[in-house]
Amino acid sequence: MKKLLLASTMLAGLTGAAFADGHEVKMGIILGFTGPIESLTPDMAAAAELAMKEASDSKKLLDGKVVVPVRGDSTCTDSAAATAAAERLITSDNVVGIMGADCSGVTTAIANNVGVPNGVTMVSPSATSPALTTIEDKGFFFRTSPSDARQGQVLADILKDKGISKVAVTYTNNDYGKGLADSFAAAFKSNGGEITISAAHEDGKADYSAEVGALAAAGADHLAVFGYVDQGGKGIIQTSLDTGAFENFILADGMIGDSLIAAIGDDLNGTIGTLPGSESEGAAKFKEVATAGGLKKNDGPFMPESYDAAALMILAMQAAGSTDRAAIQSKIMEVANAPGEKILPGELGKALDILKSGGAVDYEGASNVTFSEVGEAAGSYKELEVKAGKFETIKVR
Amino acid sequence: MIDTINAFVLFANFVLVPGLAYGAQLALGALGITLLYGVLRFANFAHGDTMAFGTMVVILFTWFFQQNGITIAPLPTALLAIPIGVALTAAVALATDRLVYKHYREIKAVPIRMVMASVGVMFVMNGVVRFIIGPNDQSFADGLRFLITARDFKKATGLNEGLAIKMSQALTVGVAVLLVVALFWFLNRTRTGKSMRAFSDNEDLALLSGISPARVVAVTWIIAAGLATIAGTLYGIDKSFKPFTYFQLLLPMFAAAIVGGVGNPVGAILGGFVIAFSEVTVTYAYKKFLTYLVPTEYAPDGLVQLLSTDYKFAVSFIILVVVLLIRPTGLMKGKVI
Fold first, then answer.
1. Residue from the list B149, B289, B310 with its beta carbon closest to the beta carbon of A200
2. A205–B245: do the CB atoms touch at under 8 Å?
3. Rounded to whole angstroms, what are the CA distances from B28 to A173, A246, B22?
């Protein structure tokens, strides 16, 4: 008994020493580490943590504070689990802001249930549903990825340029899929295109032959898949190719990932898609920074946006001169938009200096961040095409 | 004429071939449920997860074989692992019987208590499978993927429509036919099979004529576990393995067993195909099919789809309810092997 007591006192002493450090600032990272985009999220989190490390290592953040990431699992689909994870980060880990969440449905749930009520700033790198533009966020929700209202338009324009006027659409049955399918349908129709069928699919099924049968019966040569790369979207494409129903695919951001090419193979060549991002100076710079920082990948879906989301909160902290949650929220817009000196990835130390001396910064970051008045990126998209087993950027729109 | 052939090929590609394979998988699953019901007189809710367990064992050994370079291309390696899967699953089924069901049999518990016990077993199995192999998709199919691809079919015949037949589909139907023939031979021609039927028909009379109940029960579990493992493996090769989808298969399998007539093996097979084909035909969009058949001016504008594919699972529910209301004994008279 005595020994046990001694051991636990020692343990308490140890952990106390680690946590009582006033130089720590905790920042939450809520992404779907399990679930339908689990192959993307580790790289996204790594990108966000890279920004935190960069700021910490510069020793310039609020006179040498260290940003410590705390990860939470959004599961991407289960709102209850995501809310619980966010609740834990906010109330027990006491994070100053949250970089996340990732999928639109869980992001809405977290913002409505815990983020906004607790006055915690959330910057999502990848929630793209148009519905998030109008949620009651009291100014606490931001996103570095553009709304799908824009992606739908871009996709429609690409198809118009390619002379494709008839497509079948299938979307994952949630806020993201439905929102994107609707915005694409509106844009495509106003461009003079015809959508032969627009059908939802459920994720996590073993068999998609019935869904593909219905899609193929509607009579179009191209299939637009607005789903998730590790889930139903992959199943739909595999079944389409197996049955010879479709050979040409159009993908949105949730479907872009190397795991898709690894699973499907050469049949995917010629597939076109869109992904938020740009070929700007910032994007190139991000690749350098990521490589130098020892990340596994230097260019993946939503990695630049994740880096930017974390960087913005750090800069806002410096601009506010405090780690207070409300103070961070009040400064985000200011550091994200003009006027001020343009800041690219890898220049966080410089930005912190400028802010400390009372100057202004205009954070461009890896994804060309400029927030609209509701706090979301206006967004540029990369037009991608699968060539010889790789996603290649054709141009930026 | 060519249009009629096109229409038929289209129908075969999207309805007939997948329906046949899915029907065969359901039929094998339903056969296990029906046998257990016939002999042990309770509905085994753990059957879907027994399938998952058996398939998991097969997958683990398939990986082992693949790593050691033992394959039987063009056939999938999983076929080699099936006997091991069947043996282990049968052992687990027998152990479960000894630990759980035997007690309820001895105290002559009412069937509903056995059913509830099987729900418990279901959750335990469910957890064990997830604990060992994880909740995610696993792929273990290898060997030749297609007997004929849609593209090759189009090239060979010059038709507009392609017909794809996957190796896994042909294999499923072939194995199912073999198994069913073997099972019926066993039930009708062998001593053990006959004693099973006698036991199922009238337990007391069977006991009086010297049939050992322990032996009958054990043989039934072994057969049910074998059928579950093989059905699960075929389903996994054809589609994909994920513990949750196997749990979901319970509904269509039960629907198949009940529609066919619980306890009746022929009924289970019939039921499997009825459920499979209703799921596929009701949710298929017939627009293109009809466009081939009718003169151009009558070609339909709409999709001609009875139900959206979202409601696929609802179809088995509806059939189940209708059969229970109108013909509770099922299509073939049930309750006796």
1. B310
2. yes
3. 31, 32, 10
